[in-house]
């Protein structure tokens, strides 16, 4: 009726009816096209991948600069051992306490990994304040400070939570243009894709991100979410590695931790039993890691007086743990027997430098950062064993601190050194 009245008015006033109707038709077509594309989630997934790639690269850049300042401060105070120890302990202590205070004031929901809460949300339980912009800011700032302190804390778990918050905020923004994003089921589907993006832009591994979203975060995985997770994770991982090339951290777009296995003869059949033994041992040690972590948390909760004291003095627990770990890893002290001067990412990178430390007899300084594994009076096997044992319990208690932190990266470090240690033992036994 409105359209007929409008046509009659236009005809009575002598206006060109054809031009007006064509304009309305074009606007309607544009609106339908935009609504259709937004409904297919292409634009949403591109924005999600782009934002998370920028956030991941920015956090890595800031934490790397923080660690460089940490190592520079330690080197500049040489040969004053007392001042070196003071700097080695104070620097991470300040960052960890800052992360704990910031999260407590801005958003206490940002503490921890965030994956258990995210799994609860995906099962239909409403958890307030866990997918808000305040939690996003607290998670990013606190995690950056934690990674920049050099403590054995991981990035992947909290980053899955960060990606989910970003997806929730984007869905609320996109609902202005397309009402389909107000649907609760659609928002849960986008959270599954966000989980894949969180892993993909951490390690540049989109396939690993999709598998993570399938196996870990969902009891029931809808097939329609597979393409969403794969597309968003691939785009995010690609942008993340492009930013690394742009910052001259890499020559070209390659894997984050690149290996150089021979393609013509990647492994020997005789090695398969050794790999099976390593896998079995890793499974038991992984279960033991989870058991110890749980016991530490339950021990604090069961002791009412201790729990009340730590609740009243929130900075006491992270301060004591950081001080203890920094003291043990002090390089001129006990840290010289466990490569204490290497940061977590440096320890991983040293495994792929293609040096055989056990057979090296030249100047250790030629090895660069890998020289930390060589001691003139202690065997490299003892150093690797001490590193594994000390990092094991350090990672267990460090992941219980009230800051944004995860356990994936510390477990990766432990797994790689366990693989190396067991592999050396098996090779020696066979040889």
Automatic annotation (TrEMBL):
Recorded superkingdom: Eukaryota
Subcellular localization(s) per the UniProt record: Membrane
SUPFAM superfamilies xref list: Clc chloride channel
GO cellular component: plasma membrane
Keywords: CBS domain, Ion channel, Ion transport, Membrane, Repeat, Transmembrane, Transmembrane helix, Transport
Pfam families linked: Voltage_CLC (PF00654)
InterPro entries named in the record: Cl-channel_core, Cl_channel_volt-gated, ClC
Gene3D superfamilies found in the cross-reference section: Clc chloride channel
Bilayer topology annotation: Multi-pass membrane protein
Molecular function GO terms recorded: voltage-gated chloride channel activity
Residue ranges of the TM segments: 42-64, 85-107, 159-184, 190-214, 226-246, 272-294, 315-334, 378-399
Signal peptide: none
Alphabetical list of PANTHER family matching this protein: CHLORIDE CHANNEL PROTEIN 1 (PTHR45720:SF4), CHLORIDE CHANNEL PROTEIN 2 (PTHR45720)
Name of the protein in question: Chloride voltage-gated channel 1
């Amino acid at each position: 009726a409105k359209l007929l009245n409008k046509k009659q008015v236009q005809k009575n006033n002598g206006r060109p009816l054809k031009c007006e109707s064509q304009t309305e038709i074009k606007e309607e077509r544009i609106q339908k096209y935009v609504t259709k594309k937004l409904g297919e989630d292409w634009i949403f997934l591109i924005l999600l991948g782009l934002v998370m790639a920028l956030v991941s690269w920015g956090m890595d850049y800031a934490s790397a600069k923080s660690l460089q300042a940490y190592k520079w401060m330690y080197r500049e105070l040489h040969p004053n051992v007392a001042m070196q120890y003071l700097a080695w302990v104070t620097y991470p202590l300040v960052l960890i306490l800052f992360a704990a205070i910031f999260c407590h004031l801005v958003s206490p929901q940002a503490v921890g990994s965030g994956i258990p809460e995210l799994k609860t949300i995906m099962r239909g339980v409403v958890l307030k304040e866990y997918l808000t912009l305040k939690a996003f800011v607290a998670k990013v700032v606190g995690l950056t400070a934690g990674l920049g302190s050099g403590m054995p804390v991981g990035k992947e778990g909290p980053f899955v939570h960060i990606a989910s918050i970003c997806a929730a905020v984007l869905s609320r923004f996109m609902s202005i243009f397309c009402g389909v994003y107000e649907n609760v089921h659609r928002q849960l589907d986008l959270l599954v894709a966000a989980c894949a993006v969180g892993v993909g832009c951490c390690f540049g591994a989109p396939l690993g991100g999709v598998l993570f979203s399938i196996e870990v975060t969902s009891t029931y995985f809808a097939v329609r979410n597979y393409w969403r997770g794969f597309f968003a994770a691939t785009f995010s991982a690609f942008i993340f590695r492009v930013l690394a090339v742009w910052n001259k951290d890499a020559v070209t777009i390659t894997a984050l931790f690149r290996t150089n296995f021979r393609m013509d003869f990647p492994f020997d059949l005789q090695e398969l039993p050794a790999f099976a033994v390593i896998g079995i041992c890793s499974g038991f040690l992984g279960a033991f890691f989870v058991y110890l972590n749980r016991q530490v948390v339950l021990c604090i909760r069961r002791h009412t007086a201790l729990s009340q004291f730590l609740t009243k003095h929130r900075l006491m627990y992270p301060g004591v743990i950081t001080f203890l770990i920094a003291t043990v890893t002090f390089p001129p002290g006990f840290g010289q027997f466990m490569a204490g001067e290497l940061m977590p990412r440096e320890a991983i990178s040293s495994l792929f430098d293609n040096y055989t430390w056990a057979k090296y007899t030249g100047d250790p300084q030629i090895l660069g950062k890998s020289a930390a594994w060589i001691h003139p009076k202690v065997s490299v096997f003892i150093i690797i064993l001490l590193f594994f044992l000390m990092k094991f319990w350090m990672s267990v208690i460090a992941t219980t601190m009230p800051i944004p932190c995860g356990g994936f990266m510390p477990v990766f470090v432990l797994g790689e050194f366990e693989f190396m240690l067991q592999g050396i033992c098996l090779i020696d036994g066979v040889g």
